[in-house]
């Protein structure tokens, strides 16, 4: 890895064999913040990344997922295109199954509680009421990804993104610049035309527009591809690093100021590019998460810091990201119901969130144990798309090494 533009001392063979913890730990931290944010209005939700800039943990998770996909698939794609494409689509199918499973479980938890405690407003706000208003249409919508309960709407985005990975890798083989240019054009078309993924039975659209979120995922994919080739998508530059730090500080000031107005005069930049919407991923959100990523990537000593044993539980949660996310989503939705029925304060929220995080860690640990990948210092392994059990398939392919 290079820090400050210069190559650090060569690592020992044992050191080179160890997984780079940055992707796993940062992905785990993003999942923890997503879990906390999915229990609205608890005190801890006011101290996650979303409160200190334009972007939030969702952008971090998409970017990291793109990097991991680039590291895991790009080299194999060059030698076995169709086999790798099939493995990627198999992963997309696993994510699809996780979405269907988590949505059905959420409804099984919520619907009885709605009628037992009279939570009709909660059901309407979160789109649960369609189950009894249009039951057949709702069941159809679950399997066609058009019926999305609130807080269970990000996995359909991942299904689409992973389905697009082979095409992106094919473009990236020719030119990473070409892949990013095509993704940027799709982003512009998605924003300019306001094309949306349809929802059914409701008359709304997908909350996460894949046409717009594809660009951020593609940037991560490009970074992973460059790293697998032994390079850097964006080399270190003191001037660029200073600009990234300045932008992050400005974003924090803007967010903490409480004004929440447009961060600069709209006349300077077309609104189609530079609004701050999450659904269609405005440019300030992309710039903010990329600035944070650039700062982290070249932060001296950061990798060694994340190798501290205190981060091992977070590392495990990040490595079994799909298990962690599904478990956390179901627990968070349950906690929303609990807090609606029985209003809680800081002590109760602390206990409930802690129990939820421990449950996610245990689920992630169990998934890694079943897949034989619990050791955090093990050498990078081959892709495990051929694993037989459903638990094995919920564990993402190892991202291998982030840098050299």
Structure description:
- The protein has 404 residues and is mainly α.
- The chain has one domain.
- It is 64% helix and 1% strand.
- Strands 1-2 form a two-stranded antiparallel sheet.
- The N terminus and C terminus are likely disordered.
- This is OpgC protein.
- Keywords: Membrane, Transmembrane, Transmembrane helix.
- InterPro entries: UCP028704_OpgC.
- It comes from Martelella mangrovi.
Number of contiguous helices:
18
The overall strand count is 2
Structural class: mainly alpha
Gap between N and C termini, in Å?
A: 5 Å
Largest sheet: 2 strands, antiparallel
- Helicity range: 55-70%
Radius of gyration: 21 Å
Beta-strand portion reads under 5%
Order of helices and strands: EEHHHHHHHHHHHHHHHHHH
Strand arrangement in the largest pleated sheet: 1-2
Task: Give the low-pLDDT segments.
Answer: 1-17, 376-393, 399-404
Shape: globular
> Can you give the mean pLDDT?
86
List the domain count as a whole number.
1
Transmembrane segments: 21-39, 51-73, 93-119, 139-164, 176-192, 204-227, 239-256, 286-306, 318-338, 350-368
Keywords: Membrane, Transmembrane, Transmembrane helix
Protein name: OpgC protein
Organism: Martelella mangrovi
